[in-house]
Amino acid sequence: MELKKYKVVLKQGICSDIFDTPIQAVKRFGSNLEKVVEFTPPKKKKIETPPTQQALLISGRSDDDLKLSMDCGYAVMYNCPNKTKLYEGMPYLEVSENSVLEGEVIRIEKYQKSIHHHWKGPGYRPEKEWAWAIFHRKSKITEKQSAQRKYDNPLAGTQGGISYIKF
Asked: Is the pTM of this model over 0.70?
């Protein structure tokens, strides 16, 4: 069964509100209502977990970077992870010399100085601006040795700072 929703066109323009029933629209706008338009909202795509358990590994961070990432809920980077491998809920590891920030990926978006202002940049490459912001949740900072045992991986990272590990 398809779920129907309703948009309204007002006498003085279009309204962006969406209603479950036409009666709700009439109650809200009354005589200012020109017409009610029925539509089927787009179906949300479910992000399914890939069959292999992988974690996103961000390397080359300092302990201060991990604390900042933990406080603001996102990390910034120059390179973009492979978006076909990235999914919501994917384990997220941000690694420094002594510690690891463990969490889950929420989303990735283009870096914008006005929105992602927590990170003073641009890091170790002053001629270049950050390119991407990866948001994470359920994050905690742990000792690197315990994370290495948990994921059975040295968590060494790669050139470019972004890699994927299987566990």
From this structure: no
Would you say residue 48 lies in a domain?
no
Tokens of residue 131, six digits: 């390119």
Residue 93 reports pLDDT greater than 90: yes
pLDDT at 28 over 60: yes
Are residues 102 and 148 in contact, defined by beta-carbon separation less than 8 angstroms? no
Residue 12: domain span = 5-39
pLDDT-based confidence at 83, cuts 50/70/90? confident
Q: What torsion do the CA atoms of 85, 87, 90, 93 make, to the nearest 10 degrees?
A: 60
- C-alpha–C-alpha distance, residues 63 and 51, integer Å: 33
Asked whether residue 47 is domain-assigned, the answer is no
Nearest CA to 103 out of 132, 131, 74, 62 is that of 74
pLDDT of residue 25: 85
Q: Is 31 part of a structural domain of the chain?
A: yes
What is the Cα–Cα distance from 23 to 52, expressed in whole angstroms? 48
